[in-house]
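TL;DR need structure tokens for one chain.
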Amino acid sequence: MESKHSDKLVQFSLRELLVGLGVAALGLAAMRYGGVLRDLLQTGCAVLVIFAMISALVDHGRRRAFAIGFVIAALAYSGLLFLQDGREFNFLTARFATSKMLRPIRESMVTERWVGGTAQSQNPGVSAAPRQGMAVIRSAPGAGNLLRAGHTLWTLFFGYLGGKAAVLVYYRRCQETREHADLPA
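>> reply
TL;DR here they are.
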């Protein structure tokens, strides 16, 4: 017999979708601009992990299962990052797939501008071939800011998946307990 809750585990509520989109928007802004936005994202992540720890200790049922799964997954990923001695916060030395997946995001944020030469080549939208004496100015978000904000987003994502997995295990355990209670002695 299938649990009545198992089909809801793969569904997302509107609240989860809106919170996820808000966190993703803040994360992308933090990747691009760093500074206060990155600090806000990292502080928010720390506060969420702390609240999840408290919920894991004092809450009951499904919420407790989610909190335990969230904390375990988020701390496991963060722990793995910090065991790397900073390698994962530099694109040249990064080995994790999560770090490598952030590189295209950084490349999409690079802006180029040709300077020098004729005024026509400096106008946006005009495709003029670069001439001798011209230089390109590349502007990109700092790799450290981008990777720190990106890994914060990965921490929240893995925490969320860990929470969902824990709820799945919780419902399965509840279902098995009910089935064993229905067996004749």
